[in-house]
Write a structure and sequence with these properties.
Elements (H helix, E strand, L loop, with lengths): L1 E2 L5 E10 L4 E11 L16 E5 L2 E9 L8 E2 L3 E8 L11 E2 L20 H8 L3 E6 L5 H16 L3 E6 L4 H14 L3 E4 L8 H9 L4 E4 L13 E4 L2 H16 L3 E7 L5 H14 L5 E8 L4 H13 L8 E4 L2 H13 L9 E6 L2 H8 L5 E4 L5 H12 L7 E3 L4 E3 L3 H4 L6
Parallel strand pairs: 9-10, 9-11, 11-12, 12-13, 13-19, 14-15, 14-16, 16-17, 17-18
Antiparallel strand pairs: 1-6, 2-5, 2-8, 3-4, 3-7, 18-20
Bound molecules: alpha-L-arabinofuranose (AHR).
């Protein structure tokens, strides 16, 4: 029997023969397997945990079949196993049958059996690893490399089964990764969105599958805030404001600014620009005269700076504001190749605080870096573990950060962790 792909197909099953049980039950694990979801051999697995009240003689269980890849058929056939902790276990347990009641798939599911023993599953559950799917933006910057390393090492330290996916700065890859995490039935999905928009449908799929989502580093724009549980990351608008204040200090409020923007549509690019421009309104003699995206990479930063320096008004530029250090470092190279002294002829303010930026400040080539902390691993997994344990978490967690000027660079450099 084949059936075309289903999205979050709900299958209702009635478990009978629970006449011996009447009262609260902690459903510690329900495992739904479709062994024949070939060709990928993926199992569609969802765990329903929680406290259920069992009406006399019957428990009704909703099994949601989550995402199946499009264009794929699968053979229908379930086996369901359920483990209970019973608060008032009966002396004898009868074999339980899962009967496919009102199956909307219209075909027969396989009956399965349930092993029951009060308390037995607690120890087994304790051993079960937390499974977290993490979709990373890519490897575009030193910041990102440090962020990935922090996430991976923290997961390893905590014994978490981390399913890590690199989106290579493409939103479509990230959507695919999230769908695959849903299909794998991970406990929690975390991701750092490449851009702000376009994630609503896939987040709705995650919600339907009952998988909580935590945003790391970057925000998304969604009409329904319940599509994610929490967002941990920097306050990018403030970083933009800090950068502009530093430009004002460096230039006495007289600046013709070239701006290297981050990835178009990404939260840091949008918010840093917003914060920066907000402060500019207080300084009539500080103006952005050129602005273009360098996609947060060193190579693009260099390329765009080369173009800026070829513009007819290139001589007017006395400040470069780069949305991240990597683009600033690329721009420094472009300036040097054009015979311009970075940090002197053109003052440079950027954001992140990576090692390379401190080196450049020490060498007098970069003036200021506004810190953006990538070491989110420990805080992120604190949040994720709470979410997995159904504990309350704040909707927004903001990381603490500073601002570093050239004069501090040499002393600070040995303390930098990324
Ligand atoms: O989202 C954080 C930004 O993304 C960092 O500033 C940048 O370096 C990274 O690529």
């Amino acid at each position: 029997m084949h059936h075309e792909r289903q999205f979050c197909q709900s299958v209702r099953m009635d478990l009978y023969d629970l006449s011996a049980v009447n009262g609260p039950v902690h459903l510690s694990a329900v495992k739904v397997e479709t062994p024949s979801v070939a060709p990928h051999g993926q199992e569609n697995l969802r765990r329903h945990r929680g406290n259920y009240s069992v009406p006399k003689g019957n428990i009704e269980l909703f099994v949601e079949r989550s995402y199946f890849p499009p264009d794929e058929s699968y053979r229908l056939g379930f086996s369901v196993s359920v483990r209970f902790n019973l608060s008032n276990p009966p002396n004898t347990m009868k074999r339980l049958y899962v009967k496919p009641g009102r199956l909307s798939l219209g075909t027969v599911a396989v009956v399965c059996l349930v092993g029951l023993m009060a308390g037995r599953s607690t120890a087994e559950d304790a051993k079960k690893k937390l499974v977290v799917g993490f979709s990373q933006v890519g490897a575009e910057s030193q910041w990102r490399t440090a962020n990935t390393e922090s996430i991976k090492s923290e997961a390893a330290k905590r014994g978490i089964d981390l399913r890590f996916s690199d989106a290579q700065q493409k939103e479509e890859n990230q959507i695919k990764a999230i769908r695959s995490f849903i299909a794998q039935g991970v406990d929690v999905i975390a991701f750092s969105p490449v851009v702000e928009t376009g994630f609503e449908p896939v987040l709705q799929e995650a919600k339907k599958a009952g998988i909580p989502v935590v945003l790391s580093d970057r925000a998304v724009k969604v009409s329904d805030p319940s599509l994610y549980v929490s967002f941990i990351g920097s306050y990018f608008i403030e970083e933009g404001r800090r950068a502009a204040n530093e430009v004002a200090k460096l230039t006495g409020g007289k600046a013709k600014i070239a701006e290297l923007v981050g990835t178009v549509g990404s939260a840091p690019a949008i918010d840093r620009k917003k914060g920066f421009e907000e402060v500019l309104t207080k300084y009539p003699d500080m103006k952005i005269i050129m602005s273009q995206s360098g996609d947060f990479t060193r190579a693009k930063g260099k390329e765009v700076m080369e173009a800026f320096l070829k513009a007819p008004n290139a001589k007017d530029i006395n400040v470069l504001f780069a949305h991240n250090d990597d683009m600033a470092l690329g721009a420094i190279q472009a300036m040097e190749e054009a015979g311009i002294k970075p940090g002197t002829d053109i003052k440079i303010v950027s954001i992140d605080g990576v090692h390379g930026a401190f080196e450049a400040m020490k060498d007098g080539k970069l003036n200021v870096t506004v810190e953006c902390n990538p070491l989110l691993g420990p805080q992120l997994f604190d949040l994720i573990e709470k979410v997995a344990n159904k504990q309350e978490v704040p909707k927004r967690v903001v990381t603490q950060e500073g601002v570093y000027e050239q004069a501090q660079a040499a002393a600070e450099l040995p303390n930098r962790k990324y």
